[in-house]
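note to self — DONT lose this again. spent like an hour looking for the file last time. sequence + predicted structure for the chain T wanted, 113 res
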Amino acid sequence: MDPYKQLAGVIDKRMKTHTKIATAGISAELGVITARGVKLDNFKYEFQEYFLADYLTLEEPDFTVTEETTEHTHQVKTPAQLRKLQVGDRVLAVPINNGNDLVILARVVKHSG
């Protein structure tokens, strides 16, 4: 057998083993925002307390920007993707602390293109 292919095989096997160890217990889950919290698709119970990515906490859908050099304002619409989470929104979440806590990373939508 070719010694280089054998060495490459050993390296590949070790890398796969190290990757498995490094990512063990890390799994992103899909879920839905409910009236009381968030329910993961593959978990029996609803999380009533959870962590949110900061950009998902924007309260106001619109805001006004005033330029200091002039005396006029511009109405700026906040993109819908940055609005506060609402009941029924689908989310991508990662369980942490042995599944005791949950971090919502993003709102997700199905792409049909």
